[in-house]
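Quick illustration, no need to memorize.
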Amino acid sequence: MKLQKIVERLQRLHPKEIDLSLDRTRNLLKKLGNPQDQINCISIVGTNGKFSTIQALYAILKEANYKCNIYTSPHIQKINERFVFNNQPLDDDELAYLFSEIEEANNGTQITFFEILTVAYFHYAKKYPKNINLIESGLFFRFDATNILKRNLASIVTAIGLDHLDWLPKEEQTIKKIIFEKTSTLLNSKIIIAKQSSNEIDRAIKDTIKNNSSKKIIFGKNYNFTLKENGFFYFEDEFGSLKLQKPNLSGEFQLENVSTAIATIRQLSSYKITDEHIKNGVTKIESIARLQELKSGKLKDLVKNNQLLIDGSHNPLGAKVLNQYLQSMSCNKHIILGMMSNKNHSEYMEYFKDIKSLTTVDIPNQPNAIKGNELKNKIKNFKNIKYQKSVQDAIKSINLEDNDIILITGSLYLAGEVLNLN
């Protein structure tokens, strides 16, 4: 209860949810002695695959007995998920105490919720100066609160696509502008660029960072992977090749994120991480709400022996890779969909092919979500589409046959609600 009250106060410190600027973050960090200058960081920017890449890095680093601090956004079930230190999330009392410290230092100054959370993370991270910090950027990067580091170990650029367009002027809602916002201010260290969805995006990234003197490790040029039969895949970079068991993640697209993590790990020359650490680490990756199968629980009981998956994808690029995964399975697929109001709902669903049924739902506790019945009316290219108020009602309304799959998708906020319900 104490934590919730502090969170509510912090959320009222700025009238806007997002106000793109670095000044407020820098000013508060300066009051706290600039803790961000005292830690070792890997920065992760991009549109899709950031969380999965972080989890792959984390699994390998833990296998090599390195301690990590992790900052991600948004959280799925509890805000504590955003604050992992020394390989453990802070508990409610620890987080409440941290927020109280930052609230006192801020002294009522106007600052956005994300900015003050970011400051809190950096302030606590200085307690563990030897740990590796895995830091996910937020909305874009150029004016993101996490973009206040003067140095880092590496910058990772995951797959970039169209998302959060409502935060850009109409005339600038282009992939080229998004690439500029995400990559033009990357630090001068090492830059690892993941596989992109088109040659156009790949070229635009390279063009934006051409004057950055960092060592650049680019998918397809400096590292690659090949999926083989019998559950193995091969990774190759300047240090040689690795034969690896397929990671414990669903979807071949996850190999792109895992390979990017491996490419980054092998560039950390001052850390002792062996091939065995990598081989073992990729089989122990934990990824919440990213093609996660629910194998037990209240919602799982409703589908009995059928497979129930959740995925927080919410943009066209995410829909594209999700559909590729679904197309690899020879069975009926049913989608339950809930989305936020500011997303491109029709374009998101255009990527899904051969779907047996589509059910739209409301996302509870999210005032910025589109109502399920309104979402249904916006998606007109599906014949078998219906609306149900809740996820439970949606599952019960689906006429399941043996081996059918239900995928709940469209929003990380919906994924969190589903995990809580389950």
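The chain has a mean pLDDT of 94.
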